[in-house]
Each structure stands twice: as C-alpha cells, then as structure tokens.
Design brief:
alpha+beta; four-stranded antiparallel sheet; 3 domains
C-alpha cells in the first residue's frame, strides 16, 4: 500500500485541472464595477476553496485511526463529471439550546438564542455525558451560541421594541479574502449593508499590526460592527459568521469526513451494514467524530451525505459552495394593518434563485444576508408583528420560521468499504499534526487579545482566524508561526524542536522557538484546545514554486509523515496599483546589492489616460510628468518606484537599488498617494509583478 505522503506527492506532480473554477458564494460580484479586481477575487476564492477541499479530503493521518483519505468526495477542479444537485435543509434556530435545557419555555429559549445568557452549564463531551465535565455553554464568542451557520443582530428603539433584524450566513473566509483584494471595498460594503456610514477603516482593523506583504491593515473579524447579538448606532451588526464552528472550511471538512462509511452498529459483533437512519444521525456524529451533536445542522448534513455514499454516490458541495438562508414561511405572521409581512423581508446579499454553470436551476434559495425591518412610514415596529399570535420580542422567533441549506452534487459510483469508529493512535504511531500557519505578528497579536462573551469564558481573538493561507513572496524571508498538535517539542529545549519542511525543496524553515500550552479554538471547533506554536523563519528561494504549499512537521526521532495541505501560498512579488507603499519581504543591509525587473502585468494611474488602455511598469507610454507630492515628482506617472527607508528611487521596467541602503524594500506606483489632486489611488486599475535578485 502506498503511504499517504506518496499519494499526496504524486497528486501534486500529476494533477491536471478540468478548467472548472469555483464561484463566489451565491455568485456574488463585489467588484462588479472593477473587472480587474473581480478577476483577482475570483482567482483567490477559487484557490481557497481548492485548498479547503484538499484539506478535507486528506482526513486525519496524524493522530487518529480509521480516518482514511476520502474516496467518494470529489474536487471538480480535477474531476468534474455530469452530476445532479440536491439540497440539505435544517432549522436556523440553535438546536442545542432545546437539548441542553429541555425544561425551558419557548420564550426562555428565544431569550437565550438572542442574548447568549444561559441558565446553567453543559457537558463538554456530548458523546459521553457521564464522563464529561460541566463547563460554560459553548461555542464561546460574542455570538458563539448561534451555531447553525446563521447569526443575527437585533436593533431596538428607545422603548425596547425591535426595529430591525440582520441575518447573515456569509462565511468569514470570504470576507478575509475580500479584504485581501481591497480593504476599502470591505468598508464600503459594511457601510452599505448595515446602513451605517459612520463606520471607518480603523474600526475594521486589528490595532498595532499590518500585513507584512502588503503593508496594509489587518482585518478584524470581530470588529465592533460585526460582534454580538445587538446592533446600534455606535456598535454591533451582523456582516458575516463569527461562531468558531461557523466557517466554510468547516462545512467542507464535515462533508468530506462524513463520506467515510461507518459500521452500524460498531463492532463487535462484526457487521457489514453501513446505513444510518436519520434517528441515529447524532450517534453517527460520535462514531465518525465530525461536527457537533444535537445541532440541527451537523448531524443532518453528515448523516445525509453519509447515506448518499452508502447508496454508491460520489459527491461534492455544489458550486457555488456556501451556506444559504431560505425564505421564511410568513403564513403565521400577522401585521397590525394587514400588510403582508413578507414585504418587510429584504434580501440584501445573495438571491432567491441561482443556476449552476450550465444554466440548470439549483434547488432552494441562495440568500447570504437579509434584513427584516418595517418601513419608516409605518406606525409600528417589528415587535408589533405577531407569529402564531405571539409578538416578535426576539430575533430568534423569526429563525424558527426559516431554514438553512447547503447543496450537494453527486454522480453514480460505488459504495466504499466500512470502518470502525474513529479512535486514537498509539504513541509510536502518533505524529505531529500541522494545524494552522500565521505571520508571527498576526499570531502574537491575536492570541493576546481576549474576547469576552456572555458566559464569562473569554477566548483569544485567534479563535476567529481562518484557513485562508498567508502569502509569502518568492525570494523573501518571513517570520511565521506553525500551530501543531501531538508534537513532542518543548520550550527552550532546541534538541526537541521538530523539523518543518515543505513539498518544495526551494522553501526552507528553521524552528527558532516553541510556545507550549497555546489555548484557543481552531476554526471549525466548538471548544478551545491546547496546542504548541512553532516559531519559524521561512525562506522562499528565487526558484520557489508558486501556489499553495504543503507543510510537514516531523517530531524528533520520527520519519516524515503526512503534510497539511494549502497552509500558505508562495507568490511572485505583486504590486497593486491601488495600494501605497507595499512591503516585498526583502530587508536589505548596506553591503547587499539588489536589482528589480518588471515581469508581467498591466496597470494604470488614471483610466482616462492612454485611451483607457493599461500599461506596464514603465508608466504612461506618453510621458506624463508627475507633479510635486508624488513619490517621484518629475518622473513618469504610472511608473514603478521603490523605497528603502527614506530613499525613493525610480524603477520603471528595471533598475538597481541604490547602494548602501538599509531597511525593507517597498514598491508602489508613481501616483497621487495622498489624493492631493483628486481621486488618488482609488480609481487605479491593475497590478504588476516583478522579480528581485539580491546578492
């Protein structure tokens, strides 16, 4: 039998693509007015979903038994046969509230779902309650308990009546990617969706750090406008999901893992049956160790997917993969003046209908964000509307009237073999598991920011990180952190430090320190766990392979085992026309020489110039002298310029860095960076890539 490492290596070398590209959730086009940025967004999103899918299909080869790579889940980038779609539905109201507090009245459950204030603790092991310990209600976080992939924030007037409810199922990975393309567009969307023009870019940023590659602010997924269940003019709102298990990477992982067939009942005695009826879906969750028991979502998703495979189907999440709100059932709503309550429901993002890439209608609705709000010219509020005779005092009452969905797409295959329950490996067969990888400043800062919640169980902001891979430029060295599980390394003992290696020999890493007892909720997990953090210096050589990279961590005394796929991305040095001074990741000393050459790409500093045509790093083809205030006044507008410390120099299509300079090399377009003469960088289009040689 081939090793997992050999299978992965063969796939990385021989995989061919079908030409398929994943679409954004609900095929939303947030850069519709800027085709260049939309193309970049589409490409990044496709790469992210490809990586998430590869991670899920790998399964766990480090510290569990009976967790083989999947056989009946497919990635349409590499295999895209004709298939049929079917939706999987569940209630949006948090099902675990009813299970954990069975004596609570409906109104008490509504209040819990809206506030997160719980009447007691629950077991930390839903699969073995007697053996578990009682802990504060989880998941933790400002909206952690809203864990059915739907979250909401309620706006009330001075009298305490509800005037507006925002519902969202948008995944955080999408918004992190959107920020990577253009933080200003994220700001504009926040202001528009929440109808709060007072929101600023600073509000949405993590204080004290910048992206070491772009030199731009870092997105804070729990910023004050996307945190908690209450929305007001000074804080709160629901833009995207924040509960730690509410991510698209989690959903893909749940779908891939649940394709593995499990014997029912688990042996002994021996059996060949792998069918699990819906009444046993919560038991399947425990046997397969995926998702959270007693949710409305996870058992239903996992059990349905598992049954599809039992029938011999091979499946994937239908494109575009996502979590989607369905239209509410308004039949039991009653308004004071008889107006149809459905007219107060506005789809602000997403759509009622959607087709696949062949034009075939997909089942269900594809709503990403919706608002329930009575128009201002009415003399009543949302709280004056009743559902089945009860006034709407809580936003969660509305969630009882609609469902959520994902859509699967499948074709006929064969039923794979069955497996016994997931178990733990013995020590000699337990390997270091790479979990996440971050820029060092990002890790240190987010880990040290404590996030409060209504059950008084704060966790680090790092719990709201994502698996969107960090970017490292070719030819650069970056300080990073790899979070690992089941690793034998000890702090301050270099002889115990593991090896960190990659699928590309042109990429190297040196472990410089180990941090033990790192306690946070890895995205997708409902509860925090303890890990170790490896501080590593990563160097990507000039011949480093572009694209997503596999990361291996090997404990001292062990052979290299399976990698975690797509943990970071190697990129050529890309300089965007819409961003001021951008870091390259290259730090020069006075004795070093560096040359920069234009490689590819087109941009413009003004779409009205050059007949609307983009141009290369040389700048405007018709020389246009830059006025005072530009980085290089007197030089061509639109040309590539560089900076080390306070020394600015012209590059154009190629140049040597001036001698005897010390500091990080930064690059940008020669344009009106401070908007002294008009739109500044906001109307620019395009990007260029460069190669940098240092000797």
């Amino acid at each position: 039998m081939q090793s997992v490492e050999k299978i992965i290596a063969d796939k990385m070398v021989s995989a061919t693509t079908t030409g398929f590209q994943y679409r954004t959730p609900a095929n939303i086009q947030d850069f519709a007015g800027n085709p260049d940025k939309q193309k970049m967004m589409n490409s990044l999103w496709n790469n992210n979903l490809d990586g998430f899918t590869q991670q899920g299909m790998l399964n766990n080869n480090w510290n569990t038994t009976n967790t083989p790579p999947t056989t009946n889940y497919y990635n349409p980038i590499y295999n895209n046969p004709p298939s049929n779609a079917a939706n999987i539905l569940w209630m949006a109201f948090p099902g675990r509230l009813e299970y954990n507090f069975p004596s609570a009245s409906p109104d008490q459950l509504y209040q819990m779902a809206d506030t997160g204030v719980m009447p007691g603790q629950i077991s930390n092991d839903p699969c073995d309650v007697p053996a578990g310990q009682n802990v504060a209600y989880f998941p933790y976080g400002p909206r952690g308990w809203q864990d059915e992939y739907c979250e909401w924030a309620v706006t009330r007037n001075e009298a305490g009546k509800i005037t507006r409810i925002d519902f969202t199922c948008e995944n955080p990975e999408y918004w992190n990617t959107l920020w990577e393309v253009d933080p200003n567009q994220v700001l504009a969307l926040y202001q528009s969706i929440l109808n709060k023009p007072q929101i600023t870019l600073q509000d949405l940023s993590v204080p004290g750090i910048v992206n070491p590659i772009t030199n731009q602010p870092v997105y804070n997924p729990l910023n004050k406008w996307n945190s908690g269940p209450v929305s007001s003019s000074t804080q709160g709102g629901a833009i995207h999901l924040t509960s730690t298990p509410n991510t698209i990477q989690t959903e893909i992982g749940l779908a891939t893992t649940s394709t593995v067939q499990r014997f029912n009942p688990p042996p002994p005695p021996a059996t060949t049956n792998t069918m699990w009826p819906s009444a046993q879906y919560n038991d399947l969750i425990c046997v397969g160790q995926f998702g959270q028991r007693f949710r409305n979502s996870d058992p239903n998703i996992g059990g349905t997917v598992n049954n599809f495979v039992t029938q011999g189907l091979v499946l994937t999440l239908a494109d575009p993969p996502g979590l989607y709100i369905q239209m509410p059932d308004f039949s039991n709503y009653k308004t004071p003046d008889g107006t149809d309550a459905s007219t107060f429901w506005t789809i602000t993002r997403g759509s009622k209908t959607l087709t696949d890439q062949n034009g075939v209608a997909l089942p269900g609705n594809f709503i990403l964000h919706a608002v329930f709000e009575v128009p201002a010219d009415k003399n009543y509020t949302v709280s004056d509307i009743t559902i089945s005779g009860a006034p709407i005092n809580w936003g969660s009452q509305v969630t009882y009237t609609f469902k959520m969905q994902i859509v699967a797409s499948a074709y006929a295959g064969t039923t794979p073999q069955g497996y016994e329950p997931v178990g733990d490996t013995v020590p000699d067969e337990t390997y270091a598991q790479p979990v996440q990888m971050f820029y060092q400043d990002y890790f240190d800062t987010l880990y040290n920011i404590s996030v409060p919640n209504p059950v008084n169980h704060p966790i680090p902001l790092l719990s709201n990180s994502t698996y969107v891979p960090s970017v490292v430029n070719v030819g650069t060295t970056v300080e990073m952190v790899v979070v690992v599980d089941t690793c034998t390394a000890e702090a301050n003992k270099p002889d115990t430090f593991p090896k960190v290696t990659f699928g590309d020999p042109n990429i190297t890493a040196e472990v410089t320190a180990v941090k033990e007892n790192v306690f946070y909720a890895v995205p997708g997990n409902s509860q925090p766990s303890t890990y170790k953090a490896l501080y590593v210096t990563v160097t990507v050589g000039p011949n480093g392979r572009h694209g997503q990279q596999a990361v291996y961590v090997t404990n001292v005394g062990q052979q290299r085992s399976a990698p975690m796929l797509a943990l970071f991305t190697v990129s050529p040095v890309i300089i965007q026309s819409t961003i001021a001074w951008q870091n390259t990741g290259i730090v020069l000393t006075p004795t070093q020489k560096a040359s920069i050459k234009y490689a590819s790409g087109l941009w413009t500093a003004n779409p009205q110039d050059n007949g609307g045509q983009l141009y290369d790093a040389g700048g405007n083809p018709v020389f246009f002298q830059a006025p005072p205030g530009y980085p290089m006044a007197g030089q061509n507008i639109g040309a590539l310029v560089g900076r080390v410390g306070s020394t600015v120099f012209m590059i154009g299509k190629g140049a040597e860095v001036p001698a005897n300079l010390s500091g990080e090399l930064q690059l940008c377009i020669n344009d009106d960076l401070n908007a002294q003469y008009g739109a500044g960088l906001t109307d620019n289009i395009g990007f260029v890539t460069v190669t940098i040689d240092v000797s």
